[in-house]
Structure formats: structure tokens, C-alpha cells
Amino acid sequence: MAEFTESRHGMWSNRWLFILAATGSAVGLGNIWKFPYITGENGGGAFVLIYLICIAVIGIPIMLAEVTIGRMGRLSPYGTMLSLGQKFGGTKYWSILGGVGAVTGITILSFYAVIGGWVLYYVFRLLLGEFNGADSEFVEGAFTSFVGSWWQVAGWFTLFMVITTSIVARGVEKGLEIAVKWTMPFLFILLLVVLVYGIFEGGFGRAVSFMFTVDFSVLKPSSILEAMGHAFFTLSLGMGAIMIYGAYVPSDVSLRGTVYIVAAADTVVALVAGLAVFSIAYAYSLDPAGGVGLLFQTTTLAFGNLPLGSFFGFLFFLTVSFATLTSAISLTEPIITWIVEATNASRARVSILIGIVVWVLGLGSVFSFNIWSDFHLVEGKTIFDFLDYLTQAWLFPVGGLLIGIFAGFFLPKSALGEQWGISEGWKLTIWTLLIGVVAPICVLIVFAGEIGVISLVAE
Ligand code: PHE
Questions:
Q1: Ligand 1 pocket, residue 31 CB under 6 Å
Q2: Closest atom, ligand 1, to C-alpha of 324
Q3: What is the dihedral of CA 232, 47, 32, 154, to 10 degrees?
Q4: Residue 237 C-alpha to ligand 1 middle, in angstroms?
Q5: Angle, nearest 10°, between helix axes 255-283 and 45-54?
Q6: Can you tell me which atom of ligand 1 is nearest the CA of 327?
Q7: In the chain, fewer beta carbons within 10 Å around the N or the C end?
Q8: Predicted local confidence at residue 3, as pLDDT
Q9: Ligand 1 lined by 28 (C-beta under 6 Å)
Q10: How far is CA 232 from CA 31, 157, 252, in A?
Q11: 333-344 burial code (b ≥16 CB/10 A, e <16)
């Protein structure tokens, strides 16, 4: 359905820009902060293996489905699902998927931006050279006392939201290219610096064996769901971010090639971040299962003890903050485009409104680490933990599952072939099956395992 050749919200001028933007969305805190600490909490190798399988079998097909739907609809995810749903699915209810995704996006941003604030705080502290010569005790203390102070966390979170909102208000294309093109390579090099330092300090061997020795006996029952949810999270799938970026892709760009590049870049950054973080953790006897502070504690140890470390550390957190920002921007895009379409209000106004809503929501996560740390919404989960779990483990995969089914079963095969530049034949059939059947079934199996259906049947 190539009725629209352009999106009213803007267009990428070429394929490269789309790859940069999608990579900017995908590579973020999920890779650098979250992947290492959840790998640590879930025992290492077996978790990593499941995550990698999910990227290949579920992530890549669903990402292709999302960009394809986006480009066919050329509207906000809500508008796209409404129009394609009515045309090919026979009902307007597919739009719910777009709507829920948009709300999921700002829910995520409400806690994502809190961690974004932590990153900004570390930029500042490294600039002041405060980690020079630090030992494990010092970095642990520094982290704990910072997150324990509600007003400091709130302040840096507020700054992060102000920056995000002012960029989003101006429109996404401008700036994104420069931000991603310059920061990604630097970020990668600085991760390698941490890694090389870890190799010299002697933690690398244990890090490799922790991450790549597969021992299923250490896996927690919930780990499989967490690994799958993280595969969605890290590739920005299941809530419309990649769909709206797909809406800006020119009609003549090959979609399949771009999806491989984005998924590969995302995975490599995560693996290198994991190796770097664990090398330092082992070298300095920090607990790999130490949780949300792991990235901050290990990297400040490394930079605190490297020659010119403060400077490199400052650059490191600066590049991480850019990576966080480019992901944060994409989290707001589905809801902003939706409201702009529905109300015709200016993008700037809508962005500010959304910024305020996210800020208010985010206070719940800010306080989860200090004054409300004993307040549990459900079974031992703070507001932060709960939002993280709900969105990553359930909302993303359900969104992705439905996106796959919609693309695989309701969109005409000929239209898909046209989008992917392949004519009828086995290739088209295989891709359609991967998207519409294989990926959704895998998601369902993981859900069934989590809910306990599989063990019930086995009994
Ligand atoms: N993929 C981002 C990360 O790994 C997070 C994100 C999720 C961004 C969903 C947009 C949409 O940090």
C-alpha cells in the first residue's frame, strides 16, 4: 500500500541516516548499563546464549516486520496500525497496538531518564577528577550515597528530561545524524579502553568464561523471560519506535540489509560492554551480580586508575549520555506523532507536554532508590523494578508478537515482497513464516514457560 511516499513528520534523506537513527535508538542504556548487570544477576553464559538466540530468531524478524509496517503506513504507529489494520485486517482495533506501544514508550522513558540522569552525574564527577586512585570501596560508596539522595537523583533526572525535551521539540532528524555518527565510534573505542585495562588487570579470562560458559543449572526460572524481554528492549522493538523510524525511510531503500546492520551493531556493543564490565568486576572483586550500580562502579574503577583516566572517563560518560539521549528521543516519537496527528497541535507543544508527563511519572522511579525504597508495588518490586519488569517482560513481547502476526498474516505477501525487494518464491515464504509464525510461537513458548503452562503439561 504505497499510498504515501512520504511521511508528514519528516523523512530520512538516505538509507545511511535511517541506519544511524535506528542504531541510535537501539544502542543505549540497554546495551551498556542493563545487559551487563542482568547478565550478572542471571548467572552468565546460559542467559547470554538465550538472549542471542532471541535476537536472531525473534528480534531480527520482528524488527523487519516493524520497519516494513512503518514504511507502508507512513504515519504514527497508532495511525499506521489504524489505516493498515482497517485496510488489510478488516478492523480498526489494530490501532490499539499502536496506542499501547506509545504509552509503553513514555512509561519506559520515565525510568530510563532516571538512569540517564545518573549518567549525567557521572559525567560531572569525572570531569572533577573525583575518582582518581579510587578503590572498590570508594566507588561503591560513591554510587550508594548518590542514589540514596533523592534530591540529587531528581535534579539530574530533571536535567536529562529538559535536554531530551528540547531536542525532541525541534524534530528528530536534525542533530541525530551528528550525534550518532560521532558518538558511537567513540563510545565503542572507550569501551575497548575499559576492556583492555581489564585485560591488563587480569579479569578478562574470568569474564569470558562467565559470559560464554553455558551452564543451564545456574539459570533462574524467570531468566528466559528476562532474556527474551531484553532482546526486545535492546533492539527497541514492540512499541513502535522502530515502526515510526521505518515511516521515514525512503521507498527505494532495502529494508532487510539495514535490519541486519542495526541488530549486529547492537549486539556487538552489548557483548563488548559485558566483557569490559565483568573484566573489571573480577579484577577488583566486585560482585558481578551486584545490580544496577555495576556499570558505574566498574568503569569508574578503571578510569580512576588509568593514566589520564578522568579525561577518558569524562568522555566515556559523555558518549554514554549521547547514546542514552538518542534512545530516549525514539521512546517519545510514537506518542508525539500520534498526538500531532490527532490534534494538529505543534510538535514543540506536544513535546513539552509529554516531557512534563514523563517527569511526573519518573519521580516514582527517582524515589525507588531512596525515600520509597521500602515501598513495594508488588512482591518485592519497587516502582522502578515494577515498571521495568512490566514493560520489558510483558508489554514489549506482546507488542512484538502481535506485530509479527499482523505483518505475517494480514499484510498481502505481494506487498511485503515489494517492500523487501524480493519477488514471489521461497525467500518471501521463509521471511513471512519467520515473522508471522516462528517468532510469535517462540514468544508464546517463553510466556507459557513463565506462566507455568509447560510444567503443567509435562506433569
Ligand atoms: N533500545 C534502547 C536501549 O537498549 C531502549 C529503547 C527501547 C529505546 C525501546 C527505544 C524503544 O537502550
A1: yes
A2: 12
A3: 80
A4: 8
A5: 170
A6: 8
A7: C
A8: 56
A9: yes
A10: 12, 24, 27
A11: bbbbbbbbbeee
Average pLDDT (264-274) is: 97
Q: Which atom of ligand 1 is nearest to the CA of 28?
A: 12
Rounded distance between C-alpha atoms, residue 91 and residue 59, angstroms: 27
Residue (of 79, 390, 385, 61) closest to 237 by Cα position: 61
Please tell me if the CB atom of residue 236 comes closer than 6 angstroms to any atom of ligand 1. Answer: yes
Question: Mind listing the pLDDT tens digit for each residue in 409-454?
Answer: 999 999 999 999 888 789 999 999 999 999 999 999 999 888 876 6
* Whether pLDDT at 181 is above 50: yes
Say yes or no: CB of residue 107 within 6 Å of ligand 1. no
Pocket test for ligand 1, best of 27, 236, 295, 322 (most atoms within 8 A of CB): 236
- What CA–CA distances, in Å, run from 239 to 1, 233, 398? 22, 9, 9
pTM, two decimals, is 0.95
Burial of residue 52 (CB within 10 Å: 0-12, 13-18, 19+) is: middle
Residue pair 107/391 in contact (Cβ under 8 Å)? The answer is yes
Q: How far, CA to CA in Å, does 200 sit from each of 48, 59, 110, 208, 459? A: 24, 35, 38, 14, 51
Residue range 125-169, pLDDT digits in tens? 999 999 999 999 999 999 999 999 999 999 999 999 999 999 888
DSSP for 11-77 reads --SSHHHHHHHHHHHHSSHIIIIIHHHHHHHTTSHHHHHHHHHHIIIIIHHHHHHHHHHHHHH-S-H
Closest-CA residue, ligand 1 atom 9, reads: 236
User: Which ranges in 128-239 belong to alpha helices (H)?
Assistant: 136-147, 150-170, 173-201, 204-212, 223-234
The length of the chain in residues reads 459
Say if CB 36 and CB 320 are below 8 A apart.
no
